[in-house]
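To: structure subgroup
Subject: Chain for Friday's discussion

All,

I'm putting the inputs and outputs inline so they're searchable in the archive.
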Amino acid sequence: MKVEDFSSSPALGVGLKVCAIFLFTLMAALIKATSDEVPAGQAVFFRSFFAIPVIIVWLAHRGQLRVGLIPQSPMGHVWRGLFGTVAMGLTFTGLGMLPLPEVTAIGFATPIFTLILAAILLGERIRLIRLTAVAMGLVGVLIILSPRLGTTASLEDTATVGAILILIATMMRSLVQIHIRQLVQTEHTAAIVFYFSATASVLALLTLPFGWVALRMETLALLIAAGFIGGAAQILVTSAYRFGTAGMLAPYDYTSMLFAIIIGYLWFGELPTLVMLAGAALVITAGALVIWRERQLGLERGKARAVTDPKA
C-alpha cells in the first residue's frame, strides 16, 4: 500500500503535535477526575465510543471514510484493539492511584520497552548506543518507582499497586507499537485509527457485568468530553505526521510532563517529587537518545508513530 504523501511544514507539524499532547494529558485528567466513582472498564468505553463520531467526521472530511471502514487484516485490528484496550484499562486504573505527573513519567519508558521487545520479537539488533539508552532508561524507571516498590512497599498500598499497573500498561503500549509496525504494512492509517476505537468500545462492554455504575450528570459530561477530546487528539497527532517526520516530532512527546505538572497542580493539588523528576529526566534522556539513534539509522516509522496513542 502506498504511504501517504507528506507535506513539508515543520512549524505546523510541531503545533499540531504539541496541541495533541496537551489534549491527551487533559483527557487523562478527565479520566482521573472520575476514577473514584467510575470503573476503569466503563471509562474505557466512554473514551473509545465517543471518539468514534469525531474520527468518522474526520475521515469523511478527508475522503477516507471508505478506506477507514474496510480493513485488509481484520484479526490484526482485533489484536491491536486487545493490546491497546488492556493498556488503556490499566492506565485508567492507575490514574486513580497515582499523581498525574508520576503516571506520565512512567509512561516515558515506552520507547525503551519497545526497543527491548523489538529485539526479542523482531530480532532487531541493539548496538552500543541504543543498549546504553536502554540501560539508562531502565535505571530511570527504577528511580521513579523506588518510593513505590522499595523494601517497605506492600500490595496493600494503593500507590504501589498503581505503580505496578502503570508499568505493565507501559509495557503493553510497547507491544502495541511493535504490532503497529507490522499492521501498517497492509493497513491504512485511517483504518487503524477507526478500528482501535471500535474494538476498544466492544471489549470495554464486556466489563459491564463487573460493576458499571449509574453516572451523575457531571461525571457523564466529563467522560463524554474525554471521548471527544481523545478522538480530537488522535486526529491532531495523526495529522502532525503529514507535516513533519517522526524523528523531528517525537521529542515533543515529552511536553506532556510540563502539561501533567501544570494540570496536576491546578486540578488535583499534586506536585512531583525530586526523586520522580530525577528519574523522569533520565528516562527522557534515554528516550531522546533512542529517537536520535533511530533517526541516524534511518529507522523512522512515521506511520506507526502517527497512529500510536501516547496515553493509550
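Points worth raising on Friday:
Confidence is low (pLDDT under 50) at residues 1-6.
The chain has one domain: 10-306.

D.
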